[in-house]
Amino acid sequence: MNWMSIVGLICILIGTAFSFFGTMKSTEQSKKELTTTINEKNDKIDTINQNNTVLIDQNTILLESNNDITITNKDLLSQNKEMLDKITVYQ
């Protein structure tokens, strides 16, 4: 082997080592960035889920109130009918 072949082989080995370690470092950075992004998204999802739970509870309360109002309105309609019947009798 002549010295040019040895220098070429060394350059290839050094280039391969730099490429390998550069890829490893880039992969680690990408993993960290991806993990950070996923955690941020998960936090946002948790916040949205908590807000949705509050809204569902509020909607349940509103629906129950609406049901109570409907019952009260039916009672009032019945009372109005009775009053109108009494007025009709007095006339």
Describe this entry's structure for a reader.
It contains one helix and no strands. It is mainly α. The N and C termini lie far apart (129 Å). The model has no long low-confidence stretch (mean pLDDT 92).
Give a nutshell description of this structure:
With 91 residues, the protein is mainly α.
Uncertain residue segments? none
Give me the Rg, rounded.
Answer: 39 Å
Mean pLDDT, to the nearest integer, reads: 92
- Fraction of residues in helices? over 70%
N-to-C series of helices and strands = H
Number of strands: 0
Tags for this model:
rod-shaped; 91 residues; mainly alpha; 0% strand
Q: Secondary-structure map with pairings?
A:
Layout: H1 3-90
